[in-house]
Amino acid sequence: MTLPEMQDLIARGPYLNWLGLEVLALDEDSIEVRAKWREEWVASTRLMQTHGGILAALIDFAADFALVCRIGHGVPTIDLRVDYHRLAKPGDLVAKGRVIKFGRQFSTCEAQVTQDGALIASGRGTYITAPLPGKPPGA
Amino acid sequence: MTLPEMQDLIARGPYLNWLGLEVLALDEDSIEVRAKWREEWVASTRLMQTHGGILAALIDFAADFALVCRIGHGVPTIDLRVDYHRLAKPGDLVAKGRVIKFGRQFSTCEAQVTQDGALIASGRGTYITAPLPGKPPGA
Amino acid sequence: MTLPEMQDLIARGPYLNWLGLEVLALDEDSIEVRAKWREEWVASTRLMQTHGGILAALIDFAADFALVCRIGHGVPTIDLRVDYHRLAKPGDLVAKGRVIKFGRQFSTCEAQVTQDGALIASGRGTYITAPLPGKPPGA
Amino acid sequence: MTLPEMQDLIARGPYLNWLGLEVLALDEDSIEVRAKWREEWVASTRLMQTHGGILAALIDFAADFALVCRIGHGVPTIDLRVDYHRLAKPGDLVAKGRVIKFGRQFSTCEAQVTQDGALIASGRGTYITAPLPGKPPGA
């Protein structure tokens, strides 16, 4: 899959569109995207930090789409772990995902979110990489 | 904290507002909210399922705000685990959170998301319940 | 599966034997066992607390074997989360496991470990409940 | 802390002794140990695989002790995630731990377990790195 094809795939998902994802890099086992900050991401107007749910979405996306070059589409998430390291300030975020172990039934990937080079959140998820009868990809 | 006070607290957070949260029930150790579906939640237009990042946000919110009656405000999330059980269809979701163990330094809570009574996702998180010098609540 | 059959199944596993597990209760979706304390469990001789790896093993066992009545044997663990709530003192522990969501491909279960009624640790795991070609159960 | 000092610290813990840990490498942010296989680790005599609870203990140990050079002793585990990638055969295991984010209140570390170079399990944990009044280290 080429970078424009990946960008096109992302554009077809309403929530991914809302996250404002721009693909920065892509290879067989990893992906890197920039997410464009929006006011709706703010958890509290006093601190102006981006909500943890946005960071979780970026971790899930990057871990999931690290598998896309092998699979051809997003795959269902089995479960997700996110660790929060620092508050994110208003501004874009960069998310990188990487395959830890690719398996025929399920696969494990990790991801991290940074802002201006500082580690904001990191985590890992398990994804279904077996063809599931009656359960289509993209969860 | 009363239910209207909790509703008012939620209204002050832009992202929680965007999630369309309506408080259904509240007591010292738990909270239940309804989240109003919006088109931006859709992961893929073919399946129309709600994206896992929205479900993660609801798990984090409900687990975190199960602590609010004791603490008086949202607290920083240390880490989060989410298990995905079923695809959610277009429509509102209900999230319930409950304290598993309250501690002076950090606390563990669990939460689940349902749709029309079916379990969509569940999970747990660890939250800072110690006063943190220089690190304010609400992450 | 009857309680003596379950006790017999456990007796065939060297590590489960070493944990000194006695089945207290069993039904289609849950299991409860007592684990017999041994000196090798101690993390530090100053505090005499049971090591977190023992607690993790009990969480994994109880979550996994909550599925045994449906499946007939232990199943491979995909991943595990454990939250540590209190130090365990020298003495036996009780572990309870329960199915959260049973699926044809994989299932999610939760478990807790108590000592004299106090919550020591809790957690959840994802387990393979599909027949895996070439990957036998019991991991 | 020197490698012999670390080996001596490990020798004082009964459970760590039982795991047969030999320190292979050590620096400010990481640790690598070999764990000596024993028959009691076996989950099922048919497959002879090492039980997931042993792998979880090694992940927890390596993640925790990646902090030891900074802290001077083991620290309490808040929570742990373990992903299981392959069955381990009878034989020694190597565990490596690394600090992801060091914080004054709590820290996140990751670890992996390999056998003959193959990835068996990986995971991450959160650890208390603040001095806890009345709650001593070593959980």
What CATH architecture of chain A do you see?
Answer: Roll
Domain unit count of chain A: 1
Q: Oligomeric form of this entry?
A: homotetramer
Spatial sequence of strands, sheet with the most strands of chain A:
1-2-4-5-6-3
Taking pLDDT < 50 over at least 5 consecutive residues as the criterion, the unreliable ranges of chain A are 135-139
Tell me about the largest β-sheet of chain A. Answer: 6 strands, antiparallel
Number of strands of chain A: 6
Q: Note the gap between the termini of chain A.
A: 20 Å
* Strand residue content of chain A: 35-45%
Q: From the helix content, strand content and strand pairing of chain A, which structural class follows?
A: alpha+beta
Number of DSSP helices of chain A? 4
Element string of chain A (H = helix, E = strand): HHEEHHEEEE
User: What is the CA-atom radius of gyration of chain A, in angstroms?
Assistant: 14 Å
CATH topology heading of chain A: Thiol Ester Dehydrase, Chain A
CATH class of chain A: Alpha Beta
CATH superfamily of chain A: Hotdog Thioesterase
- Biggest chain contact: A-B, 43 and 43 residues
Q: Tell me the overall shape of chain A.
A: globular
User: What share of the residues of chain A lie within helices?
Assistant: 10-25%
